[in-house]
Amino acid sequence: MGAVTITSGVTTEPLLELDRLSVRFALGGGRGEVRAVSDASLRLRPGRVLALVGESGCGKSVLASALLGLLPGNARVRGAARLADGTELLAAPERVLSRRVRGRLLGLVPQSASTHLTPVRTARAQLAEVLRALRPDSGPDAADALAEEVGLRPADLDRYPHELSGGMAQRVAVALALAGDPPVVLADEPTTGLDRPLVHRTLDLLAAATDEQRAVLLITHDLAAARRVATDVAVMYASRIVESGPAEEVFADPWHPYTAGLLGALPGGGFRPIPGHPPVLTELDRLEEEWGCAFCHRCPDVPGFAPCTGNPELLDLGDRSVAAHPPC
Ligand SMILES: Nc1ncnc2c1ncn2[C@@H]1O[C@H](COP(=O)(O)OP(=O)(O)OP(=O)(O)O)[C@@H](O)[C@H]1O
Ligand code: NI
């Protein structure tokens, strides 16, 4: 896979590159394996917000946990995930992940800011502690500067988590994720439980955090959220990325029937949810072997239960890629 792309004369190395990342969980007791992530390949370039979207349970969070080295013991991981400095995340020992990667090279914006923060200490105390650990040479004004960067007043930092509104807590969480100045920010459902205006402000904040040195991987099942800020999108279905490309192009002209189905379920798309449910992940190997792809039984383009001759492998077609899915 070519790691360097020339875009209008500017060379942009990916800050994060996934090459056929796969994760399986052994269930034990003869109950088989959960195939949670299958051959996921992605490139995250500086200045970009890449949204990884897909229904609940399709493997988005497992992919994030694999990058952070936070998978449970029954997980088996394959493939590669490289950072720009050459760190191979999947092979790195916990010592390297905890000392050099988490917070410094990979910042994490958690799903729920309020449960992420320690209730008995002020936001300032928590931010100062993280700054001391990640940026020991930072001056006394660093916390205030970070607060300002995420749209908080310095005085807000002197509150305890229960004194912060949901939006303020989420801003503190973003500030904590940015404290180590990481080139890659991973945000897993960062807007869960927030109302729409707050969803928008949090997303805009993440988009604003991207620059020539930084990119965001935004994990969400909220397609409207992805649409608002993503420059690139990867659509995941039943453990596989089935389509990816520049967000504007994918949203305007989806190639995979699953992407089209997700868009059709949005208010602007007519509120038509995709019928049926994703397959059980322990059945994926058998399904793909028998049917070609795992979306057939929900696919509007495949009449009845005729197996489709789709190839679940992602085909690279220039800027965009799609899992071939004839006759769609
Ligand atoms: N330790 C584990 N053992 C077995 N299966 C697991 C384990 N952890 C996760 N899974 C399964 O992996 C699949 C993918 O889960 P994941 O949390 O990545 O979904 P998701 O796309 O993030 O969904 P959501 O939008 O709900 O967060 C699920 O079917 C889940 O049950
Ligand atoms: Ni199909």
TrEMBL record:
Its EC number is 7.2.2.11. One of its GO terms (molecular function) is ATP binding. The keyword Cytoplasm does not apply. The keyword Transcription regulation does not apply. Coiled coil: none annotated. Residues 16-263 form the ABC transporter domain. PANTHER family: NICKEL ABC TRANSPORTER, ATP-BINDING PROTEIN, OLIGOPEPTIDE TRANSPORT ATP-BINDING PROTEIN APPD. This is Nickel import system ATP-binding protein NikD. It comes from Saccharopolyspora cebuensis.
